[in-house]
Amino acid sequence: MKKMKKNSYFLMLWLMLATGALSCKKYLDAKPNKQLATISSLTELQALLDDHTRLNYQTVYAAEAASDDFYLTDQALNALSLEGDRRVYNWQKGNQFEGTVNGWYYSYLGIYYGNTILESLNEIERTNGNAAQWDNIKGQGYYYKGSNLLNAAMVWALAYAPNSASQTLGLPLRASVDFNVPSTRASLEDTYQQLLSDLKNACRYLAVQQVHVMRPSKAAAYAMVSRAYLMMNKYAEAALYADTALQLKSELIDYNNINATATNPFPEYGMEVLHHVTIANPAVLNQSNASIVDELYNSYAADDLRKKVFFTKLNNRNVFKGNYSGQTSLFFGPAVDEMYLNRAEGYARTNQLPKALADLNTLMLKRWDKTKTYVPYNSSDQQTVIAWVLAERRKELLMRGLRWGDVKRLNTLGYGIKLERKYNSSGAVLEPKSSGFAMSIPETIIDLTGMPQN
Amino acid sequence: MRGLVMICCCLLGIQWAQAQNLKGKVLDQQTGKAMQGVGISVESGLATQSTGDGSFQLKLSAGSYLLKASYVGYATIHIPVNIPLKDSLMIRLVPSEQQLEGVTISTGYQTLPRERATGSFAVVDQRQFELQAGTDVLSRLESISNGLTVDRRSSSSGQLMVRGLSTIAGPKSPLIILDNFPYQGDVANLNPNDMESIVLLKDAAATSIWGSRAGNGVIVLTSKKAKRGGGMQVDFNANVLLAEKPDLFSVPQMGSSEFIEVEQFLYDKGFYASRINSAAKPALSPVVELLLANTKGSITAAQLQSSLEQLRQQDVREAYTNLVYQRPFTQQYNLSLRGSEQRIDWYLMIGNDRNRNEVDAASNRLNLISRNTLRLGSKLKVDFGINYTYQNGTGGKASFNDLKNSSGVLYPYLSLADDSGQPLAIPQTYALSYLQTLNRDQFYDWNYYPLSDYLNNNIGNNRRSILGNVALSYELMPGLNFKAYYQREYQQTGSKSIYGTDSYTVRSLVNTYTQLAADGKVTRIVPMAELLDWAQGTMDAQSLRAQLGYNKTLGRGQLDFLAGFELNERRAEGITGRVYGYSDERLSSVALNYNIAYPNYITKANSFLNTGQGLSSTLNRFVSVYANAAYTFDGKYILSASARRDASNLFGVSANDKWKPLWSVGAAWNVHREKFMQLAWLNELKLRGSYGLSGNVDPSRAALTTLLVAGTSTLTQGAQARFDQFANPSLRWEKVATANLGFDFALFNNALTGSVEVFQKVSSDLYGNTPVDYTAVPAASLVMNVAKIRAKGLDVALRYKLADGKFKWVPDLNFNLNKDEVLEYYQASDQGAIFVGTGITASPLKGYPVYSVFSYRWAGLNPLNGNPQGYYQGAVTDNYTQLLGTGTKVSDLVFNGPAFAPVYGSLGQHFAYQNLSLDVRFSFKLGHSFGRSGINYNNLFNSGTGHPEYAQRWQQPGDEAHTQVPSLVYPAVSRRDNFYNNSEVLIEDASSLRLAFVTLGYKWDAKWLSRLSLKSLSIQANASNLGMVWRANKQGLDPDYRTGAIPPARVFSLGLRCGL
User: Fold this and answer.
1) B828 and A37 in contact by Cβ < 8 A?
2) Strands (E), B152-279
3) Identity of the residue in B615, B775, B973 whose CB atom sits nearest the CB atom of A445
4) Which terminus of chain B is more exposed, N or C, with fewer CB under 10 A?
């Protein structure tokens, strides 16, 4: 009897433990931190895509830092705290990207976000109810993947040339979020095919109208395809995609309505902006250091409003203030004016001169002082028209992260643009065919992956 | 005092007695007088008390028993007896204050006699614990406990570690148990005067009962309780503490004169041009302002020189010490009452601590504690208690760090007040010269006056904590009992910061968002009114335990078994907010539009108003089952085993993986009980050994990709999220396997006592930070289960009564040896640059200590230009791209030894003459290295971080013969600075010996006190943080404190203890 009683106590104990173990599964499924979420719905995916701090306010700026639209005085150059920026500016290979949170990091961050979106969508059913949102999110995923790869290609790869692209080193193409897959460099051909495919998918899925330009719209995706084709010197396609973008959004800001004396003349999220991508002025590019080269500044006609709206004088230097960010940060996203110029160049190169001239003049009318007479561009000589388009392109799109890519692609056509740091006592020079047009991949990445360096 | 004493017993007088009736007598060991009222009991529950002549009787059936004799103020002793016993027992009790170690040990699950323990327990001596003063519990442990050290390399308050490292990237704190459960609240709630005993659980047999959170060791705090028997006892304790002002001069700072020289040099180079020209008008240093004024012609060269000369004479540390610092002052009062009635034992405590720190911030703490035991019949016992803590504090004056400008630069020559004592403005966000140009009709004064700004603010914080617990113990049948515990702890924290209309915070905010129309019309976006920032937090923790225990004497053996089930939950929530347009008098507020970005008047950058909103909510849950069994044979041989499984709501781990079994086994042999070891000089010898596993869990690590939802976008009106952690499906809990072998001894009539233990800890599946290819994942490094480390060590505790008469002299030593080594570590790269460093962060390498100091080989300064030089592929070079690049492997570095002391411990001397006692305690750390800071020109130019060794820099050829400090180069080359600061020339031996404290005490005679109807009265004076007696480095640095941290100032205290 006594023994039985003892046994029953142990039985009770084990029963208690067993029920405890069963019911605690639910108890243990509680979230440890309410701010944490796993990806399980479209809401979370869109929330990730609305991470403005990383997707809209960060981008690689090295291409602009290496461009020939501005110069630094020796004084300003020496005062730069980032040695890597100094080396980018002087086109010195090696150690151009220091630390771990650099341009390479942000380029591939966008690609990782994109891959996360695309992979997670496989787990979320597309229904009649959520189709519009589902598609729009998928489009944004493709957009960030493709556009970041394009920006990276401008910095770390040589210009695209159709004959040699499959033998030229391109960039690592990350197909998934699995970080155990080692990074290897694809050919430049495959790199461009990948980013074109991603961006074209973005065109297919993105919504025409977004709630805000912080999210890329369909027009922004077309614009990025057009930009990619132009970088490949594929003009018909560049014009076609620019045209599609312009069919969705073509309104230009009339600079006559802009207060030229304001510190930041343009409104934030202005009507020409297709997708808001900015970078808070890095030291190498900010007004107090970067001065616009005289050759460029002097090329604006007196009645060209851009001469006043874009620039201000600081200690007798001409500095840039015409940021489409509406702030002091630089604007690197696609915009309507770029599309007019892409289409104009595409038309000009494919010998559709009247169309090219029409685009050029449409743009210029919005840039010209309306109290002064504007004499429209007019010529039947293809080379003249191309030269005009290129000149206006440089004047319109400075400090937008595009000039460096333009120099590269034009040099593959034999333009022979030799870059020189004239105001720099060490006198850097970048020859048209230099390998310096592909910057050094961060050394730590080379060390970790064993990929070939540029 | 059950946990703090040691037994001393002897069997005397052999007589034949009647079977089944145990007879004995209790005497005071010292006086030889009979003792009345001593509790005598055996484990089955039978108990009695000794009578006036000290005698007692217990009726027992035949068998073995462990007899317990206890009396307040005396060491409890346990005596194994076999009934029938031929002899009468003579028990001699020793007053507990003379005791060395505890007889019983509390693990939080059970209290067991030390004799029957197989594990490694370090009991903190209560007398030594009370030799020190101060308001917190844990800081007293460092210099007096065995196997515990404090690592201060990354924070001055330090990281407590039991037996060194068990983890690399996981949590390093030991588990803190208060009575029965892990303490979930703020450890600062605990009052040291409420602690009765403190035990460190060091090996697996001791810790594995605590399962997956015990990998770093366990500290069990046992609070004072009601005591059965005896009359009412009242204890009162008061302390005052006075500390010195913090020594700002202990932090290396560049001299004003040299700093000005560098600023002039940089000004001439145009280094400041971009700041001066910037539209954002960033802050300029007073020197740059003067140089600029001179350039613009607003002051003459002579005026410039005289102003600079004046600045050269100034030292901000001196000014701040004189004008701001005061001597921190603390008062502590504590009153406790305890008594015992027929059915209830009760204990009440009230404690109050009041402190004013060096910047006049006040904090008060009130502890109200009640703990009771209720006996309902012979089988049911209920313990219940409630513990209330209220802490509140107010803000103080500007801290020394507040003198830095908004980019973190501290100008060493700042002056804080003018000659007449009026507060002066110092540069903060914007240039002072620019702020002067603003129209005072449109803008409020935009200057920051550090000396007086605090007068405009009303900063307060408070914390309330209520901890209630109830424990029920029921004897189901003899030997079998059931216990149920429930504890709930609720803690509420709140803070309120009211910034007045004259405060810099408000003036600057209002000015920043001021809008000026073309006609000069002023619009204020932020109203000129008080500003309120508030925060509230709650913590709600619950623990529930059900446990069955079985204790049975089986012939000559004794079986103790317990098994139970436990739930722990901790829920913490927080919310913060900001009120604009606040008025504390009228409680008014103004609603502002948070969806419009307003321009900053100066920089023109648009920004949204800070809503101050923040929400947080965390929940940790643990479910555990455990069992523990011990079998003692003949009082000599002990076997123990323990097992536990834990599960938690660790995010993203499937439930099966959450259950983690942890176990231990142990054995011990009381050699002195053997017949062949009955030696006159041997009082105790016990051998013991154990092996087992415990774990270490970090609830913040998730195995799934998780997002952190970080608010709502004002632009897209949608939620915003970012990655928090990246998927790692193979995530596991860390495991620590510990093997322990040791012996405890007492020799020569207990004059020499101590223990010696050796242990080996192998920690596997450790979280490790490893650099990853950020092409593949947006992270520079990721934490994975990548490492395995092994630590081997030796713990020695010795105490020797050199003199034990009227004059007493008792030295004691805690000596700890601990060497860890990395057995496995997945490291993707072997580039030297990843491993160099001063050992602050782990960069583990197989075969080396976890925290190793690696440095670049030093080849002296280049005699031509003063460049620091190293070796690249055998040749001397100053090519820093090579020296820091991927070509320099870890094998090319110099290994300077571990960053943690492999040898540490403390040495105490206790002297007493009659009623007077003196205690002196030293602590030591030996055999490790640290990297001192050196000049870094890049930091000097860009962030104003200077170094006094600038004065010794290489300036001309030949200087390399007497200096190792690189020359100044412009522009600074960050790789050059990096090389020098990580080179072997800056590595120093970190060994040191410090005087931890000196305490002088006086205790009045009981005889004399009885006339005052006092039971006890003593006073003591203590001085602590007395600094280093010896250090290996020649630089005069304190290696325990990281660069830039101020070592704690000396503290003097005076205390009084009184019992009636």
Assistant:
1) no
2) 159-162, 175-178, 181-182, 195-201, 218-223, 233-243
3) B775
4) C
